[in-house]
Amino acid sequence: xxxxxxxxxxxxxxxxxxxxxxxxxxxxxxxxxxxxxxxxxxxxxxxxxxxxxxxxxxxxxxxxxxxxxxxxxxxxxxxxxxxxxxxxxxxxxxxxxxxxxxxxxxxxxxxxxxxxxxxxxxxxxxxxxxxxxxxxxxxxxxxxxxxxxxxxxxxxxxxxxxxxxxxxxxxxxxxxxxxxxxxxxxxxxxxxxxxxxxxxxxxxxxxxxx
Length: 210
Known about the structure:
This protein has helices at 15-26, 33-37, 46-55, 68-75, 79-111, 128-131, 147-157, 162-171, 175-181, 192-204; strands at 2-8, 29-32, 119-124, 139-144, 184-187. By secondary structure, it is of the alpha/beta class. Strands 2-3-1-4-5 form a five-stranded parallel beta sheet, sandwiched between helices. It is globular and about 55 Å long. 24% of the residues are buried. The mean pLDDT is 86.
C-alpha cells in the first residue's frame, strides 16, 4: 500500500526529528521541500536570475551568490516581497515534488509488486498550504511546540536572535490554522523517546494505511 504523508509546522517545531523517526522505523521516503526550494538560489539558473533582477545586489555576496539571510530579512519584513519570491519558489518546488512522487511510485511498483505492506512517502514543508503541496498528500500531520521552546532551539541551533525568530513566526501560518486543516496533531513538548512513541503509534494505528 502506497501512502503520501504530509508533515508541516512552523520553524523550530521539530519536524526533522519526526522525519528521522519515520525513516528509521518505517523506511519512509523523505522529501524535504524546503531544502529543495534552496535550489532556486543556485547561481545562473533562471530562478536565480529572476530573483537577483528583482532584489538587486543587496542580496549578493562578493562572489555573486545569494545570501539567504539577507533575503530573509527583506521578505519577512515586507509581505509583497515575500509574495514575489513565493511566486518563483513554489512552482519550482511543486514540479520537483511531483517528479519525486512519480519516481517513487514507479520504483515501488517495479520492486515490490507482491508486497502488501506500507510504503510511505513523507513530504515535509513549512509551507504546505501556502505552496499548495497539501494536494499531493493522503494525510497531513501538524507538528507543534511551545513558542519559548522554539525560540530557544533557533537561538541555539541557528544563532537567531529572539526578535528574528518571532518575525519568522509571524510570517508563517498560525497554529490555529494548522490545527484546523491537518488531520492529526503532534505536540512536541516532551522528550525524544515520547515523541518517537507517539509517531510510531500514529502510523501503526492509521487504518487508512492498511
